Amino acid sequence: MRLTASRPVSPTRLRLSLVVGAACAAALYFGHGRSFVSLSWDPHAVHCLPELHLALLVHNQPSTVARGDYLFWRASSISALSYVTDDYVLKRVAGVPGDKLDIRDSKVFVNGVLVAEGLEDAVLYKHRAADFERTEVIPPGRYFMVGTARMSNDSRYWGYLPHDAIVGKGYRIY
Questions:
Q1: Global pTM value
Q2: Going from the N-terminus, what domains does the chain have, and what CATH number goes with each?
Q3: How far, in Å, CA of 62 to CA of 69, rounded?
Q4: pLDDT at residue 46, as a whole number
């Protein structure tokens, strides 16, 4: 038997191996018959979540949701997103029940903290940006969802995401 020197593993191959390994481990951990796991990436030229390139999606409706969580749901469950051809929509939670929402001057504040800017998509709804300005308290069982890009079609335009529509949580991998 002749031994040969092995070639060094490329960084890309190593990263891919780690991602696949992490996904498999998560599937085994979370999977015990009640949920499953998948990977998601945004193939579009303009990303709604530009900081999120690859996400692990855990298909299990969470009992608790916190600001900053990534949630996903079926695009068909929000009528304003009926044009979306992907199965799921993934956005970040910016506001939870009881939070004060204030949209003014094309800026979105939750409890006085700036969480998003821009109302460029108002034209898609055939409205002026000022038509989306409001101050209100987020009702029970509803979440204010945002993408971090100015052109994200999110709760600024179509309102709150009901808890019952949530399919699961997303976790940033890369």
A1: 0.75
A2: 11-172 (2.10.109.10)
A3: 11
A4: 46
